[in-house]
Every structure is written in structure tokens, then in C-alpha cells.
Write a structure and sequence with these properties.
- Helix 2 (55-66) runs antiparallel to helix 5, helix 5 crosses helix 7 and helix 6 (159-165) crosses helix 7.
- The protein starts with a strand and ends with a helix.
- The protein contains eight helices and five strands, in the order E-H-E-E-H-E-H-E-H-H-H-H-H.
- By secondary structure, it is α+β, with helices and mostly antiparallel strands.
Length: 200
């Protein structure tokens, strides 16, 4: 099972792409190689192919990357399923994961993150859960987003190591930022998502 994350940058015209585009490319490169695993198209849209069980954690890391810039946000759809054809460019590949991602993206409306899998009970569960998660994630400050991104990418770091790697003054400021960003709750959500994928 694979997952395709389809996304676009909200408010991309409010901020020069030279500011946010290198950060987006860097986070996508962290999870795959261009253009086989990811591609940016139409200037502010992207697709990324990842293992299904990692998709939610990766989507949240992308969101934290973009939320470091307070003028913009990102809207993403996670589509889970089989991949029938892997081309040299991800935008030419196809299969159930791509179809689910595209359909989910079309249905997002005002919500900034959605999920479509081949399993209706799982879709129904996360249709209820995601809006609660997004009440926190959509309101991350740029500082919280920066710290959260570092924490997601370096799960082995303790708070003192996070403070040191971010040149922050104290472990307590890291702790309060992670608490405001809902880090522990997000980790539980990611674990729950992984368990649901592994059950299928």
C-alpha cells in the first residue's frame, strides 16, 4: 500500500515563492527523489508518493514547514491504495492511491487535510477526527511550527537537544511551544493512524 499526498499552498501570492519554495522542496526531498517520488507543478501545487503508514506524519511535517511562514498555509489530501503504474515522473504515475488522492483533494473545500482509503470505516473515522486535529494545526504559530517540524524530523531528540538545534534559549520554551502545538496529541494521532493502516 502506498499513499499519495496532493497539496497546494494557500495564499501563495501573498509571499514571494523564493521565500517558501526552497523550504517546500527541502521537506519533499527529505521523503523522496524528484521527479519520481515528488513534483511541484503549476507553481504552488505538489504531489508526493510515500509509504501508506508514514503519510499522516509526513503531511503534518509538510504543514509545519509551510506554517513557519505566517502568511501562508497548505491544503493536502492523502490518498491510500495500490499503485498500478510508476512512471519516471510522479505526475504520470497512476493507480488507486492517485485516484483517491485526487478525489479527496477535490472534496476538501475549506478543510486543510483529508484522507481517502479503500476502507470506508477508516475514512469515516478520520472524517470525524481530522477536523478536531486541524483546530490546533491550522492555528500553529510560526514558532510552534518550526519547533514541531524539528521534533517530527528528529524523534530521538529530547527537549534540550531541540532547544540546542534551534538555538533556542531554554528547554522550557520548547516544552511550552510543543504543548501549545498539541505535539503529544499529534503523536497519539499518528500512532492511531499507523495502527489502522496496519490492520487492513
Amino acid at each position: 500500500m502506498k499513499a499519495v499526498i496532493t497539496g497546494d499552498i494557500m495564499g501563495s501570492r501573498k509571499l514571494a515563492s523564493a521565500i517558501w519554495l526552497p523550504e517546500l522542496k527541502a521537506v519533499l526531498s527529505h521523503y523522496g527523489s524528484e521527479p519520481k517520488d515528488w513534483e511541484i507543478y503549476r507553481g504552488d501545487s505538489f504531489q508526493l508518493l510515500v509509504p501508506a503508514e508514514e503519510a499522516l506524519e509526513i503531511a503534518l511535517c509538510i504543514k509545519a514547514t509551510i506554517k513557519q511562514f505566517k502568511e501562508i498555509d497548505v491544503r493536502m489530501a492523502i490518498g491510500v491504495g495500490a499503485v498500478d503504474y510508476l512512471a519516471e515522473k510522479i505526475t504520470e504515475s497512476n493507480g488507486e492511491a492517485f485516484i483517491n488522492s485526487g478525489e479527496c483533494f477535490e472534496d476538501l473545500k475549506k478543510q486543510t487535510l483529508g484522507l481517502k482509503t479503500p476502507w470506508e470505516p477508516m475514512n469515516a473515522t478520520f472524517a470525524v477526527v481530522f477536523p478536531f486535529m486541524l483546530m490546533i494545526a491550522d492555528n500553529w504559530t510560526s514558532t510552534s511550527a518550526e519547533i514541531l517540524k524539528k521534533a517530527i524530523e528528529n524523534p530521538e531528540f529530547n527537549q534540550s537537544q531541540l532547544a540546542e538545534s534551534l538555538n533556542r534559549k531554554s528547554q522550557s520554551s520548547i516544552s511550552s511551544s510543543l504543548k501549545r502545538a498539541g505535539y503529544e496529541e499529534l503523536k497519539n494521532m499518528i500512532s492511531f493512524y499507523k495502527q489502522q493502516i496496519q490492520k487492513q
